[in-house]
Design goal:
Layout lengths: L1 H11 L6 H17 L25 H9 L9 H20 L13 H11 L4 H14 L10 H15 L13 H4 L4 H14 L5 H8 L18 H4 L2
Helix pairs in contact: 1-4, 5-6, 5-7, 6-7, 7-9
């Protein structure tokens, strides 16, 4: 699904990417996860979700990166590439049908669109605050906040968290600053979004680490073609 979402997003934003480029990028990400690049292999284990390549625990990160540099991209005519391509097209169809083939509203509904505008209105001069708010918006995209809350709410939450990190005080009198952008009685929404984003960036949480460094198996009754026990994990190496 992520593969197809990336493919569709490129089209929506008028920056389309070839099918081959998308597939090879995701294939590279799979290899990184099989090698668990950047993860603390010694102190963290995720069970079946590890799906580790042989010898992972004995390699340093530098050695893992060197392994990745010497892996040849899969051929466009091979069975693995063709299976990735077929799944991509199937999921693209599912996404388009689910959205009713109505995509024109998506580019105007990103929380990122509101970040810099809100910061200018609030007269926040620290560039670090803007950057961290942008990063928090990126983190919000790792979960389903975009379909549960308006983009303005997520943008305000990102600014709130960034200002808290940098000890930047914003006005609360005669009313909290965020009410200017999202109206009153939204305190609970801001709290919920804040907690969700902070939970995502907590690397001590095993589920977060699994999602970032390892593999999240499919919850479907019939296993996904790219679950850890699928043949593509070894064939694609």
């Amino acid at each position: 699904m992520a593969l197809a979402c990336t493919f569709v997003a490129g089209k929506v934003e008028e920056e389309p990417r070839p099918v081959r480029s998308v597939i090879l990028t995701y294939s590279h990400l799979y290899r990184r996860r099989r090698l668990r690049v950047g993860d603390d292999v010694t102190n963290y284990s995720y069970g079946a979700a590890d799906a580790e390549a042989e010898g992972t625990a004995t390699l340093s990160n530098e050695e893992k990166e060197n392994v990745l540099r010497h892996v040849k991209p899969m051929g466009m005519g091979g069975p693995v590439f063709l299976e990735w391509r077929d799944v991509l097209f199937q999921m693209e169809s599912v996404i388009l049908k689910t959205l009713g083939f109505t995509l024109h509203w998506i580019p105007d509904s990103h929380p990122h669109k509101f970040i810099l505008y809100f910061i200018r209105v609030l007269e926040i001069e620290k560039k670090e605050v803007a950057q961290d708010a942008w990063n928090y918006c990126n983190d919000s995209c790792r979960i389903d906040l975009c379909v549960r809350y308006e983009p303005e709410v997520i943008a305000c939450t990102a600014i709130l968290l960034a200002c808290s990190d940098h000890n930047v005080e914003l006005p609360h009198i005669p009313r909290p600053w965020w009410e200017t952008f999202i109206g009153s009685s939204r305190n609970m929404d801001l709290s919920n979004v804040s907690n969700a984003i902070l939970a995502v960036v907590d690397e001590k949480d095993l589920d977060n680490r699994r999602a970032k460094y390892a593999f999240v198996p499919s919850l479907l009754e019939e296993p996904s073609f790219n679950d850890p026990d699928s043949y593509i994990w070894s064939v694609a190496d």
